[in-house]
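Tutorial handout. Part one gives the primary structure; part two gives the three-dimensional structure as tokens.
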Amino acid sequence: MPGVIYQSVFFNGSGYAAESRTFVQALVRAGIAVRIDPLDPVPQGEGAEAYAPLLPLLQTPVSAGDALLVQAQPVPWVKGRPPAARAILRTMYETERIRPEWAAQCNLFDEIWLPSRQNVEAFVASGVRPEKVRLVPGGVDVRRFSPGASPLPLAHHRGFAFLSVFAWHWRKGWDHLLRAYCLEFGADEPVTLYLKVDPLDRRPDVAGELLFYIRHVLGRDPADVPEIVLLDFPLSDAEMARLYAAVDAFVLPTRGEGYGRPFLEAMASGLPVIGTAWGGQADFLREGVAYPVPVAGMVAAPDGDLHTFRGLRWAEPDGEALRRAMRHVFTHREEARAVGAAARRLVEDGWDAERIAGDLADRLRNLADEGR
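Part two.
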């Protein structure tokens, strides 16, 4: 086949970049010639070391006129079909529906790859032509994210550690998380909440907003709440695997996800996972392999988050159920470990990036044949 040009962000802390790094390397191992076309700056100097396996893919000899082009980016930013023999859009969104004008942009592509059943339903209900849509799960490297990783040293580990990984956006439900954690646990209990916040988010002062919320919204003295540690510095993919290995449970009461990559990374690492039972993660976040938090209701996104969400609906997780789940995992640790082990098996079976990339390689070959 003529080869693939994969257009995406690759060199930042976003979910799109993490998935694109994983997929292009797996496609290469599956025998596909891939040239990457970064939508973000290529790192130079010392910053390039973490991306060494990707950098040769900038020069892969692929003919632009004959290549299949995969464009991976959020649906609001899609502006027309790129010129290519076959153009595929890898996208997702975090709300109950998408806007009709976004659906029209999707329909310009030959195929739209969506990561979850919720996204397939949302896009088709909003006007995307169903014959163009393929369900392509978001995969993770189950060899990297595994229970055997060497734990990353963490300060202030007080006995039991919760971890949450997210960008500092209202959508991620950090307010629900802080409220549940601070109300459910006492300052004297042996528990720590680690917040791994995307350092590329442009919010001016995450630590300041965190303290403001505790003091002025929850009405608590920050010195009189259980331990909270903010991790707002960059970590490589390998270091992220070690971070999951250093904690006891993962929690993210998100209002909406395309598929929720950190959930999959945590589950692949063998952690018990607590998360909202709606959105892309509902494909795998279920009883027996996780601790799904029920939804209190569907609500319109506020004006304060990204403007593209405005007026669209997402889920509001049940705060009391979140508190109970966190306490249950803290108290029933042997059971939680068994749930984490079951989660690991589930991800190995259905969300292994290597297997997904093998299926994608076959699909790309078929598309190339259809274009002849």
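Part three, for discussion. Residues 160-350 form a domain with the Rossmann fold fold (CATH 3.40.50.2000). The chain has two domains: 4-139+352-370, 160-350.
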